[in-house]
Write a structure and sequence with these properties.
The structure is a homodimer of 377-residue chains.
Chain A lengths: L10 E5 L3 E2 L5 E2 L2 E8 L9 E5 L11 E2 L2 E5 L6 E2 L4 E2 L4 E5 L14 E2 L4 E2 L9 H14 L5 E7 L1 H12 L4 E7 L7 H15 L17 H15 L2 H7 L18 H14 L4 H13 L10 H4 L6 E7 L7 H13 L4 E6 L13 H15 L5
Parallel strand pairs in A: 5-10, 5-13, 8-9, 13-14, 14-15, 15-16
Antiparallel strand pairs in A: 1-4, 2-3, 4-10, 6-7, 11-12
């Protein structure tokens, strides 16, 4: 049975109504790049929005005709017969505003200056993204999503949908996420940001004009990120203390396999990801905190929500631990909302949400089948 | 009661016998800077060697006449009437070979070239340090230490003493340490090293000649280090999500208190610590692995040991978790050695070993009193 969403292609939505950010900054016009999988039903009740995390984008499932190896980042989850079954659902993936995969972001040309936005691109919040996503929904004629889903930073957007547009989302699937970052989470982001900000090739965010890229900073940011995506145990199992050449070199070349892995991941990332987008994404993470406006009372923050929730966490995720998910669940329950919660036993840390894992996928499939039962396909 | 070791002053020991490193590299002559507290008894049986961790040095207790605010880094632990009672013990602190506080290291002048060693300074291992420390003991006429003690990387040196010179140490006090680094530990070190190595001001380790310092890299390394020294909970308690100005700034200036703290720590460290020494220290950590030569069998690695051991860990230390200490304890017990183990309940993570903590100090005091009972003062 073919379970791939098949050949897909990116589409562009152009918005020429000014966008006012939470910060007060304004963008006069912008584009969002997105992909869709499956067919929108007659009453437009089967749409699912997939929100991406820090380094994700709109290419969520399927592959491109001219590059069959470029498979969507959540292709294990989404496709015909998969947990998010595109025979039943109309699934939308988009690249967020401020991104670097086709949506308007810091590396895009500012029509007012003819130069890349660079440092002048506004700081984006999760709330801003949800507004921009609602405009995309309007364009596609979707009044209410069957579900909004995402992992990590994507899960924050899914939760924010239930707060910003309670009537426009029936189910929120919040995976490996948190009600806000801890001081330690912010600290890791701050080190990553400082690596980029202090790279001499960053040029205050306007490196495009100098024909350089702050590769060193991006590389360090990604290396550090990777440590927090994996679990201590997973790293021990996968790399342990294995030496690349079998013996100690007594120099600063790559010696341990884990060093080789990290540097490879760093190099790969720095070759394509935009440094300003990285900064924006980490700021959006730091800022997300729906309880802040309610004296840090998360129960009150969720009072407006009307959706049903599936909350999932992974046992070895120390970046967004199960405890953080349970805090969300408690706040939802205190508001008498329908909540399903599952703590998935997985060795792979925060990255688990991107992986093919039987129990995880079973839980997702069961919940999504329930959603599919609510509308006529 | 005065419990300060009082006014102390650094002493220099000059060694003109060539030092052969584990790597095979040779240093023709070198100096070690050290301090002593208390009085060596007639049969020289009351000496304790204190080994320092990554950023430590020889100034362990007391203060300097010309700078009374410069108090030793373990002054809470060591002094008259303190857990390491200098009325009973003769305590030695030294700056390790490769350091940047007075002992010969990368920033010292190489007499053969008239220029700083820089990148040519050999990579040092824990085993090398223990050899260099034994030469200092010889110079001071100390045949056998009552105890060798240290926390973190210092604890590794204390353990190595029992393996390299089983007859020269009666007690090993290994605090907040591990039998080797995990892949995750190495990964953090690798990111820190890469921050320094890729700083354009590093100049391949020979930055001295260029009149610059790789401040950016050192700063990042220290910021990252600090995250791993603290616990998630301690950071949450101390900083939480407090904003410095009370509101979001929507820019990349310091916003959260935790950012302010980290950057301050980074700046302070980068202003005085030598980048090459930082690299050497992290390599020594990565390399320490006494079981490597015994097919990863730690029991066999400790077969040569004769000392009694006090092993201490701290509940919230995720850099060197209690589990790592228990691994050491088990290996020692399998060799029928005398072992005391205590897991101290502390909120302060890895940094706990440097702090004044009642239960911790009580355990240390009790164990050291027992040692003091073994010799005539």
């Amino acid at each position: 049975m073919n379970t791939s969403a098949g050949i897909v292609s990116a589409q562009h939505a152009v918005f020429d109504t000014p966008f006012i950010f939470k910060s007060g900054a304004v963008l006069l016009c912008y584009e969002l790049v997105y992909e869709t999988y499956g067919v929108l039903n007659a009453d437009k009740s089967n749409a699912i929005l997939v929100c991406h995390a820090l380094s994700g984008h709109h290419h969520v499932a399927g592959y491109y005709a001219d590059n069959p190896n470029n498979v969507g980042w959540w292709d294990t989850m989404i496709g015909p017969g998969k947990p998010v079954d595109t025979n039943k659902f109309f699934v939308i993936g988009l690249n967020n505003l401020g991104g670097c995969h086709g949506s308007t972001g810091p590396s895009s040309i500012n029509p007012e200056t003819g130069k890349p936005y660079g440092a002048s691109f506004p700081v984006v919040t999760v709330e801003d993204w949800v507004v921009s996503q609602s405009r995309l929904a309007n364009l596609l004629g979707i009044r209410q999503f069957a579900a909004v889903m995402g992992g990590s930073l994507g899960g924050m957007q899914a939760m924010q949908w239930s707060l910003s547009y309670p009537e426009r989302v029936r189910h929120v699937l919040a995976i490996a996420t948190a009600p806000h970052l801890t001081a330690e989470n912010i600290a890791f982001n701050d080190v990553a940001r400082n690596a980029i900000l202090t790279d001499p090739d960053f040029h205050g965010g306007n490196f495009y004009e100098h024909g350089v890229v702050p590769t060193r900073g991006l590389r360090l940011a990604r290396m550090l990120g990777h440590i927090t995506y994996l679990s201590d145990d997973a790293m021990a199992d996968k790399f342990g203390r294995s030496l690349r050449s079998g013996k100690l070199g007594y120099n600063y070349d790559i010696e341990f396999e884990i060093e080789s892995y990290l540097r490879y991941q760093g190099d790969k990332f720095a070759a394509y990801f935009d440094a300003n987008t990285y900064l924006l994404m980490t700021k959006a993470l730091d800022y997300f905190d729906p309880a802040r406006d309610y004296n840090d009372n998360l129960d009150q923050a969720f009072a407006a929500a009307r959706a049903d929730f599936l909350v999932l966490s992974f046992t070895t995720d120390w970046r967004f631990s199960p405890e953080r998910s349970r805090t969300i669940v408690n706040a939802l329950l205190h508001n008498r909302l329908n909540v399903s919660y599952s703590e998935i036993s997985s060795a792979h840390g925060h990255d688990s949400f991107l992986m093919q894992h039987e129990h995880y996928h079973e839980v997702m499939r069961a919940y999504l089948n329930r959603i599919a039962g609510e509308f006529s396909s």
